[in-house]
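Input record (one chain):
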Amino acid sequence: MNQKALAVILSGLLAFCTPLLAKDESGRRIGIYPANPAYWQYKGEPVLLVGGSKDDSLFQIPDIAEQLDLLASVGGNYVRNTMSSRRDHDFEVQAFFQLGGGPYDLDRWNERYWQRFARFLKLTHERDIIVQIEIWATFDYYRNHWDGHPLNPKNNINYTPKESGLPVKVNSHPTRTENNFFRSIPAVNNQAVVLKYQQRFVDKILSYSLTYGHVLYCMDNETSVTSEWGKYWSHYIQDKAKQADASVCTTEMWDAWDLSHRMHNATFDHPETYDFVDISQNNHQKGQAHWDNAQKQRARIASHKRPLNCVKIYGADRGRFGNDRDAMERFWRNVFGGLASSRFHRPDSGLGLNEKAQASLRSMKLLTQEIHVFASEPHNDLLAERQNNEAYCLAQPGQTYAVFFPHGGAVSLKTNFSSRPKTIRWLNILTHQWQGSQSTTGDVVALTAPSKEYWVALVK
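The corresponding structure, as predicted from the sequence alone:
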């Protein structure tokens, strides 16, 4: 049998097997937890998603296995993966085939790109690490990144600027939305020649990802374009999944830092389009405002609960969006605020997977072994003598209470089992160690953090 005939047979087998692989994952795929739709369920069990990593286009990094092993070893189970390629990262490759050193042919693939993606999905699946994919890496289509992108009409043999309606130069910030790349869909500019290759790219992603059950789908990164764009791709992916007898969950990530901005209405108010809501941009907020803004949105969707994800937590001493302390506080406030996921952003803007991030992940694992997060709710109403940003309570009233202290402090916790003995244990987050235990009685428990470090008090 010649190689061409063998390739045809193998291609046919892959097309036949892909839906069967997806079907085998049925019931074990990432989905909304029925007992509490604010959280995720994976392999039939509720799961809190926490993580961090040193890069966003994680599938492209050379030491991907080592990075995933480190994450799993410290209790992490959640990563972000942008389907991106940028020339400023010399290890990254493009998805499309380049003719010598010249233009790209959008009808042919660069197999190195897709082999990396396939390996990444396999490695994360083996480690039970949930992947949140971002289909369109917004900044790839602006400024210097767009200048070298295969889908830029000056860089491929498949369409011209006139045929595509796409600019060859876009020197503005993505918030200006000056690239018609994001207006190709039928409901907007109907640029069929461009949409053909956009669909081809998404189809190729799905040909790998739909065979796995540990993938969440986000349409964009920090987008400001029309809501029709994300809606189109969300339904497109959902329809492709149904054809493969698979179930998927989708969202959109808007650029606005204020969650009450009208941009966010498209995700908060349209569960028929988006299964969950990514509120990563709230992690630009600090202190009490960070908590209050997230809780306002939890109340907004209380009648139709869905997971609220934070795939990016900003903050690093050398970064632009707060310092290390902001990042640590944001991570813990998210979890204590009833959010479904919390992940440290890459090192230039976040903690990545540095020692502080690792300590938080280790400590979160210790805490969630002691408290039933999925049956608990934020309960700052149970804290008396509390100052702004002093302490945060997550509780299953009558059973367990956890109180997070970002920077020391003292509060009184109101419980409702006054006649029963209670134990108090303190978790030092940075050392990820429990500090003994003490017993007490009475309905009100006085809690004073042992120091100005990050602490969690556990009352059972």
